[in-house]
Design a protein that fits this description.
Number of strands: 12
CATH class of the largest domain: Alpha Beta
Low-confidence stretches: none
CATH topology of the largest domain: Nucleotidyltransferase, domain 5
Shape: globular
Number of helices: 11
Strand content: 15-25%
Helix content: 25-40%
Radius of gyration: 19 Å
CATH architecture of the largest domain: 2-Layer Sandwich
Oligomer: single chain
Number of domains: 2
Length: 318
């Protein structure tokens, strides 16, 4: 009986990097997470990923490696063009550098594209021909499956939904613009909004959950407080959901998808975040598009990017 082939997937994040071994049927065989030492520079990050892969793979045969990284990037050449949340990555040949260290073929893909592929392959978007996936983490990424195929755009930069301008005079974004969706609704933005509420004197369970340290409040802490029906945390997610809903409505009006999924660490609050998003989408999207567009949560959780990155490697090595 022929053995199933195994591929490695890497989801490179601004805080942590997730790695996994994936079968050609989309089954997760093993997984690992390592910190992303962004402050130590590009070379140290690549070494850290390579070390993680060596630990994960061991003596097992892995056909190829797919790595999802923040963009914009040139997937064909394996080069990161720009990465606002990863200092020193601009212009780097990430696929080549990781291939040298891992001694296996490496394919580069936008991290949000990889997450969208994972959900489309074996997740909540399985079988959907027109799918949008928004990943809410250190930044906000987007992946577009249009007509049953990943849409990358003319220069591999399609899907940068986190850099839609939502508030023209809004807070500065790492990309240099102001009022981007990412600056208003990413995981760090959620945490900052929560801290701002506390600074204004609102009492909240979030402070207790953070051990009494406002600086320790994260998007995860906000989600946990929402599960306890903390009114301040619920207000934080309501405001965040409003911005995400505006962005989702824009995408629905332009692309007419069947399904819009939300994932990443910032979406852990689930329905607490989805409800205000739905409310804003109902207000702002055309009825003809809205009636076909369902909203939902990613099914693969933190594994979506890893699974999708492995799928990219599999497609490149048939």
């Amino acid at each position: 009986m022929e053995k199933t082939r195994v591929f490695a997937g890497v989801d490179l994040g601004g805080t942590n990097t997730k790695l996994g071994l994936i079968s050609e049927t989309g089954e997760i065989l093993d997984r690992l997470q390592v910190p992303t030492p962004t402050q130590s520079g590009y070379e140290q990050v690549v070494e850290s990923v390579a070390d993680g892969l060596r630990m994960l793979i061991g003596s097992r045969h892995v056909v190829a490696i797919g790595i999802g990284a923040p963009g914009p990037l040139d997937a064909e050449c394996g080069v990161v063009i720009e990465a606002p949340n990863l200092p020193g990555f601009a212009g780097k040949a990430l696929a080549r550098d990781l291939q040298i260290r891992s001694e296996r073929p490496v394919v580069l893909e936008n991290d949000a594209n990889a997450a969208a592929l994972g959900e489309w392959w074996v997740g909540a978007g399985e079988g959907i021909r027109h799918l949008i996936v928004l990943t809410i983490g250190t930044g906000i990424g987007g992946g577009l499956i249009l007509g049953g195929r990943l849409y990358r755009g003319s220069s591999f930069s399609a899907g940068e939904v986190g850099h839609m301008t939502i508030e023209p005079n809004g807070p500065p974004c790492a990309c240099g613009n102001h009022g981007c969706l990412e600056a208003l609704a990413s995981a760090p933005a959620i945490a900052a909004r929560a801290r701002e509420k506390l600074q204004k004197g609102f009492e909240s369970l979030m402070l207790d959950l953070a051990g009494g340290d406002p600086a320790a409040i994260s998007a995860e802490v906000v989600s946990r407080a929402c599960a306890e029906n903390d009114p301040v945390a619920l207000r934080v997610l309501e405001e965040t959901g409003r911005y995400l809903g505006i962005g989702a409505a824009n995408l629905i009006n332009v692309l007419n998808p069947e399904l819009v999924l939300f994932g990443g660490g910032g979406a852990q609050a689930g329905e607490f975040l989805l409800a205000p998003i739905q409310k804003e989408v109902d207000r702002r999207s055309f009825s003809g598009s809205r009636c076909r567009a369902e909203l939902g949560l990613c099914a693969l959780g933190n594994d979506a990017g890893v699974v999708g990155a492995a799928r990219v490697a599999m497609d490149a090595n048939p």
